[in-house]
From TrEMBL:
PANTHER family: 5-DEMETHOXYUBIQUINONE HYDROXYLASE, MITOCHONDRIAL (PTHR11237:SF4), COENZYME Q10 BIOSYNTHESIS PROTEIN 7 (PTHR11237)
Keyword Oxidoreductase: yes
Name by which UniProt lists this protein: COQ7 protein
Recorded metabolic or biological pathway in which this protein acts: Cofactor biosynthesis; ubiquinone biosynthesis
GO MF term list: 3-demethoxyubiquinol 3-hydroxylase activity; metal ion binding
Gene3D superfamilies on file: 1.20.1260.10
A Pfam family the protein falls into: COQ7
Any GO CC annotation of this UniProt entry: mitochondrial inner membrane
Amino acid sequence: GGGSLRLCSTRVSLEGINRPVIDRIIRVDHAGEYGANRIYAGQMAVLGRSSVGPIIQQMWNQEKDHLKKFSELMVTYRVRPTVLLPFWNVAGFVLGAGSALLGKKGAMACTVAVEESISDHYNNQIRTLVEEDPEKYKELLQVIKQFRDDEREHHDIGIEHDAEAAPAYSVLKTAIQLGCKAAIFLSERI
């Protein structure tokens, strides 16, 4: 009885997977999508009723779908979330609201910085999984590739909406990307 129920609840065979690699990938991607949701929530709190509100909402809706999928993958692959989620909850919202307080251009600069970092990170994960076994990780690779493409689209939307014209753009972008690298490093491990 119980064994067949478990098999029905997961479409992925957990046999022969590289557990440390998969744990790190799913944990950090869940944390990243959680943080992205909080960033967009902060941006919407400040700019939701502005002309850029619908654009931010559209990107946020995609991030909600990403978070839902990684939440499902955490159950499927039996991965625990990072213990840093409460911190990312606050930090993400503050980053989103803070960048939005700089105006539309500031919010879009934040989007460009974060989404560029995330798409680069997804590319690294794709390389890792392809080197491991592209057939074994086919479903996970498809998810990561699709989400990477969505993040690239968000990056391009930010550029189209004057991100590079934000005050101190290069400093802001560099600072946010350093924060992203630290968040990735910590969320993979803790």
